[in-house]
Structures are given as structure tokens and as C-alpha cells.
Give the backbone structure.
Amino acid sequence: MRKAVYFLAFFLFLGYFSMAQVRRAKNQPNYDYQRIHFGFLIGFNQFSFKTEPIANLSETDSILSVNSANSKGFSLMIISDLRLSNHLNLRFEPGLSYLQRDLIYTLDYQVSNQFVEERRSVESTLVELPVLIKFSSNRVNNHRAYLIGGVKYNIDMSSQKDVEVKELFKLKQTDYAVEYGVGWDFYFEYFKFSPQIKASYGFNNLLVPDGSVFTNSIERINNRAVYLNFTFE
């Protein structure tokens, strides 16, 4: 998915500058002068963990390493957009993201002299509450490139942090994150469409210690995500 994201970013900006010299009739020429407008977003996400193992991991009984595996999901958001100036908009995009995050442990079973991998998966339904600033270029014909970024508060509705089951890998319910991205607006006759790429970096340590070797081997665990979104406004 990362290669596809880089390719799309390159394609968007190459296409924007190559078409800047061609004059076309504008669709919805007054669209960007609306004080407030609304829309929705659908997209795909790829979440992973950034883990920080304990300093003396090599001294644990069986854990040799802890790694994260990327997992894909999807998102659905509602867009509320407030025009601040010709190039700046304030956006609130609440919605839901469905995802799975995986941790892969490499264990050394000294009795059998073998290395074994064990996976701990966490499925989540996130209520995401991002507040973003959108900075747009000048409109050229029916196209406009933009940068977007801001902060986000997440609530995991599937969190099982209080469930007393040792087989579950539990995470905290709330998280804070910063996110940023790029996109390209296409103005059609009746709506505006935009492909968009965003990255998200969580700050909250999500680890819930349960006394098991799987949580005792980790100092911190944070969310990382990439989104490939499509907005309709």
C-alpha cells in the first residue's frame, strides 16, 4: 500500500502542473466562496504499531524480538468545512475506522531448541475526531491541489482493557494523534471529488500491562497509520 500511496502522490502533482497550462470552462465557479459546506469521506487505512521493547529484552526467558505487521481496514467520515480565507479552510471530520493491528513475537523455546513466532491481534472500531487545517493552491480550471494537517482524538469502541482474560492483548481506549497529508480537488458539475493521502502518528502509550511475558517485554506501544481517502463534497 505504501508504494501505491507514493505513486498516487506523484501522479496527482504531476497531473496538476501538466494541466495548469490548459484553459477549460470552470464547473461550480463559486463553490469555494461558500462559508460552510459538508460532504463525506470513504477510504482505506493501514494501521501498525510502533513498539519500544524493554531495555533488557535479551534477558527475558523466551522473547527474542517484537515486531509489528501492517493490517488494512476501511474508514467512513462526515466532513464539515468552514472557509477561513481563499486558501485556508477549517475542517472537522468525525467518523469510524475499522482496523486490525498485529504484534509478532519471536520466542526461543529452549527445551525444543526452536524459534517460534506467536501473533497477538487486536481488532478495533475507532471513533475518530480530527480537527484539520486545509491549505489549498490557486484553482486552475477544475483542479486544485492542497495540503492538510491537524490533530485528532480517537476512541476505541472495541477496547477490552478491563476484561480479565489473559489470552487477550489489551490496549487503552483513547489516543491522541497528529496527522497530515496531500490531496487534489476535482470540480465536477454537481460535486467536488478528491483523492487524498494522510499519515497519522499517535502519542498515547496504549499498552495495558497484564503481567504476561507479552506485555512485560514492551515499554511503549503507539499507533501509526496511513490513509488513502476519497472525499465527496
